[in-house]
Amino acid sequence: MKKIINTENAPAPIGPYNQAILSNGTLYISGQIPIDPKSGELVSGDIKLETKQSMENLKAILTEAEMTFENVVKSSIFLSDMNQFTEVNEVYATYFNADTAPARETVEVANLPKFVNVEISMIAVK
C-alpha cells in the first residue's frame, strides 16, 4: 500500500508526481530544487543558499512523514556544475551526523528543472 505525502511547507510538484510516497515504511522523496514554498520563487545566485533551500524542502517533507534526516538511508545530488561540489557538500553536511550519514551519489548533469544548479532526492526508512 502506498500513501501520498504532500505538505504546503515544500514546493508543489511542477509535474505529474507527488512530493513523496510512503510504502511499507520506506519514504521515496522526489527531487527537490531550490524553490521557496512560501513565495513560489526560485532561490538563485548562490549555490549554498540554493542547497540550503533544497534541504529545507526535503526536511519539510520528512517532517510531514514523521521522519527526520536520521531516517534517510540514500540520497542523490544532481549538480549543473561539479565545481560547486565542495560548497554543496558543506551545506549538505550540516543536516547529517557524519557517523550515521546515508549512502549517496553526486553527479553532474547537463540541465535540471527550471535550469537550477542543484536538485536533491532522498529515500528514508522508519
UniProtKB/TrEMBL annotation:
UniProt name for this protein: 2-iminobutanoate/2-iminopropanoate deaminase
Family: Belongs to the RutC family.
Gene3D superfamilies: RutC-like
GO molecular function terms listed in the Swiss-Prot or TrEMBL record: deaminase activity
Coiled coil (UniProt feature): none
SUPFAM superfamilies xrefs: YjgF-like
Signal peptide bounds: none
Species, as recorded: Maribacter litoralis
GO (cellular component) term, any one: cytosol
InterPro entries named among the record's database cross-references: RidA (IPR006056), RutC-like_sf (IPR035959), YjgF/YER057c/UK114 (IPR006175)
